[in-house]
Amino acid sequence: MTPPRPQAPRLPKFPARWLGPCLVAAVCGQAWRGEAGGPAASIYGRRAAAARLGTAAEAAASAGEQSGQAERIVTSSLARIARAETVSVRLRQRVRLGDRVLVGAGRYLQAGQGEEQRFRFETTLTSDSESFEVTEVSDGLFCWLHRRTGPDSPTLHRIDVQRVRARLAELDAADPADTAAYLGGLQRNLWWARQWFRFGEAVPAELEGRPVWLIEGHWQAGILPVLLPELAEPAKRPEGIRPEDLPDGFPWLMRLAIDQGDLLPRRLEFLAIPGPRPVAPAAPEPITVIDFLEFDLGGPVDATAFYYQPAREELVDITAHVVKTMTLMRP
Question: What is the pLDDT of residues 167-181, one digit of tens each?
Fold first, then answer.
């Protein structure tokens, strides 16, 4: 199979790094897996057993049908968040970067629908020597993106929401008012994860006593050599690109745990073979884990959370770049 060279979605940085320090990102690696009786054990230890519980009809379903079900579950989950009148969720996260483990927490608030939708996303990740802070706020007119990465000087970017909406209309988007996935916050993180990865079978499992669908996402065909040109030659091998070919910290696959009852995401993971390169072949393990806690749709949200008045000295308006490089999310 030799698909045409894809047009890779354009982002300031590859999403795993952005999902890591930006939250987006989570409870992971050996430190998380090593906790006896922890949440990781509760979901992975039951996966094989849960898979055996499927009916004969499910077992006979084709891979295409299984993938279609998984894609529908993921899309429905993201649509629930996008269409909710209000959203409030707390995040717990751990990220493994090289020999460091960063832990942190965050909060996401959202209110309104369509052109009236606003959001605020804040998260921090810290290790013994570094910290990462992210604040993303959309007040309906502008989206503000503030980053503080380790010892580097903080950055402050601004995006004109109306111009993004106008560009989506030019691109013939289904609903140009749905701008959050192109701006920031939880929706952007989740929709971009779906943009890069294709989801396979949805396996019934359990996470902390809660029935969930456990869904793995693998890279879209042909994307990796576009993102990492050094993988162009490995991609030509009969076996193709292998997990050990990727740079340290670059995920091989992702996992989503989606509640079977309300279809809300409960955990997002990125998996890879950690450690300095070259590295021996091994089973990929979580390097980033994000737990979504206290998910509340339709509850009260403080409207003042969406007001943001940053200092303007270091402000950079990136609207022109965002509009120029914008492509629609995959259907």
Answer: 999 999 999 999 999
Torsion angle defined by CA atoms of residues 176, 179, 182 and 187, in that order, rounded to the nearest 10 degrees: -130
Structure tokens, 76: 């429905």
Strand order in the sheet with 155-160: 197-207, 210-219, 253-259, 265-272, 285-297, 86-97, 100-111, 118-126, 131-138, 142-149, 155-160, 315-317
Q: What is the CATH number of the domain that holds 297?
A: 2.50.20.10
CB 187 within 8 A of CB 23: no
> Which residues does 127 contact at the CB level (< 8 Å), separation at least 6?
100, 101, 102, 103
pTM reported for the whole predicted model: 0.81
User: Domain total for the chain?
Assistant: 1
- For residue 7, tell me if it sits in a domain: no
SS3 150: coil
**Interatomic CA distance for residues 302 and 134, integer angstroms:** 20
